[in-house]
Design a protein that fits this description.
alpha/beta, Rossmann fold, Pantoate--beta-alanine Ligase, Chain: A,domain 2, 3-stranded antiparallel β-sheet, 10 helices, about 20% strand, globular, binds adenosine-5'-triphosphate, binds pantoate, binds beta-alanine, Pantoate_ligase_C, pantothenate biosynthesis, ligase, Cyt_trans-like
Length: about 280
């Protein structure tokens, strides 16, 4: 399976695939692949003739003081895993090829980027939208696969391709979890043993909140206060945000009605973990 580093090599490989009338699935990742990524690759391989997995720790989505340098990497392992799950190529560009000297063009998806992670990571979604636009244009993919763990990212990408009329179908894939409910994340490696043992509180609390809503609770503040109480009782947890929003527009809501997303970000030591659930009410 080819590992492509340059933009020109990627373009010519995609042109070959197109010439053979193959449909193309794209799975954008930052590498250090786990079962969450694998579920996206499996789905892409089931839906498309060819799958390209991108592995790129995108510098423009990291703010000052975030973990850009520390982000875990293991390209040989990623390549082997992607190949085993049916990928036909891995695209692993260098930052200076994606952002050469003089680079000045960014994609800003307004509104949907503002709340949740946008509050504490103000430039994050500009970087995500920019790199994803570039990946969509470079690959000409028919479909691109994103995890529901990053629910706001999924909403940003859906808005982006609708607004810019990019002809790629965006496919959302369910959250893959550890046996104790913790959402799989490359950043889980930052957790100490004590923090790892405490982190499943996020999923437990979200499940309890979901049950309350399913039992009829419709006041968003009640649900958020419940989650704040449950999570702040864990001494290792430091809440970044807990919010209830409309799932597509990411606008905060007071009443839990329609397509809702209840999402949180919580720090455990060096790891900032995100999780969520969504319901159609
Ligand atoms: N547990 C998971 N279940 C489903 N999809 C996931 C999961 N974790 C990541 N993904 C998806 O994989 C894609 C690439 O994500 P990324 O490489 O940032 O992995 P990550 O584990 O989420 O990393 P981090 O948590 O450190 O940001 C994204 O679309 C993301 O939503
Ligand atoms: C979509 C993405 C690969 C863009 O860098 C990243 O934000 C991620 O891994 O979710
Ligand atoms: N999965 C989102 C990538 C990031 O946190 O930068």
């Amino acid at each position: 399976m080819p590992v492509v580093h340059s933009l020109d090599d990627l373009r010519s490989l995609m042109a070959d695939w197109r010439k053979s009338r193959c449909s193309i699935g794209l799975v954008p990742t930052m590498g250090y692949l786990h079962e969450g990524h694998v579920s996206l690759i499996d789905r892409a391989a089931a839906d498309n003739d060819r799958v390209v997995v991108s592995v790129f720790v995108n510098p423009t989505q990291f703010g000052a003081g975030e973990d850009l340098e520390a982000y875990p990497k293991d390209l040989p392992r990623d390549v082997a895993l992607a190949a085993r799950h049916g990928a036909a190529a891995v695209f692993a560009p260098a930052p200076e090829d994606m952002y050469p000297a003089g680079y000045s063009t960014y994609v800003n998806v307004e509104g949907v980027s503002a709340e949740l992670c946008g509050r504490s990571r103000p430039i994050h979604f500009r970087g995500v939208a920019t790199v994803c636009t570039k990946l969509f244009l470079l690959t000409g993919a028919d479909r691109a696969y994103f995890g529901e763990k990053d629910a706001q990212q999924l909403a940003v990408i859906r808005r982006l391709v609708a607004d810019l009329a990019i002809p790629v179908q965006i496919v959302g894939c369910p959250i893959v979890r550890e046996a104790d409910g913790l959402a799989k994340s490359s950043r889980n490696v930052y957790l100490t043993a004590e923090e790892r043992a405490a982190a499943p509180i996020l999923h437990r609390a979200l499940e309890e909140a979901r049950e309350k809503i399913q039992a009829g609770e419709r006041d968003a503040r009640t649900i958020i206060a419940f989650l704040e109480d449950r999570i702040s009782a864990e001494p290792l947890a430091e809440i970044d945000y807990i919010q209830a929003v409309h799932r597509d527009t990411i606008v905060p809501i007071d009443r839990l009605e329609g397509p809702i997303l209840v999402a949180l970000a919580v720090r455990f030591g060096k790891a900032r973990l995100i999780d969520n659930f969504s319901l159609d009410l």
